[in-house]
Amino acid sequence: MGDTFCYYLDMPLSIRGVSVINPDGTITVYINSRLTYEQQRKAYQHEISHIDNDDFNNYDDINNIECSNNDRSMPL
After folding, report:
1. Residues 6+ apart with CB under 8 A from 13
2. How far is CA 69 from CA 17, 23, 25, 53, 57, in A?
3. CA 54/CA 28 separation, integer angstroms
4. Is the Cβ–Cβ distance between 45 and 73 less than 8 Å?
5. Cα–Cα distance between 55 and 43 in angstroms, integer?
6. Given phi > 0 = left and psi -120 to 50 = alpha, else beta, which region is 25?
7. How many CA atoms lie within 13 A of 18 on its CB side?
8. Over the stretch 27-38, which tens digit does the pLDDT of each residue have?
9. pTM value?
10. Where are the domains of the chain?
11. What is the pLDDT of residue 67?
């Protein structure tokens, strides 16, 4: 994977973070700016675990990926 960039955006509270692979191979992580600092930190760690585990190339059901990822990361 390429470089990773992180931005804070106002999002619904039901969304803590989102990661996107860009056409140039970089990754953009969006973290909800409405969360507390601690929630933002945990959301960032969660998104980084997706990157570290190469979940983008795993074409499994997203719910299975999230359940698996939640098992290996700290609860939000």
Report:
1. 32, 34, 35
2. 13, 24, 22, 9, 14
3. 14
4. yes
5. 16
6. left
7. 13
8. 999 999 999 999
9. 0.75
10. 4-72
11. 56
Please state the three-class secondary structure of the chain as a single string. Answer: CCCEEEEEECCCCCCCEEEEECCCCCEEEEEECCCCHHHHHHHHHHHHHHHHCCHHHCCCCHHHHHHHHHHHCCCC
Per-residue tokens: 3:
């470089």
Instruction: Provide the pLDDT for residue 69.
Output: 52
- Cα separation, 30 vs 33, in Å, equals 9
CA–CA gap between residue 23 and residue 20 (Å, rounded):
10
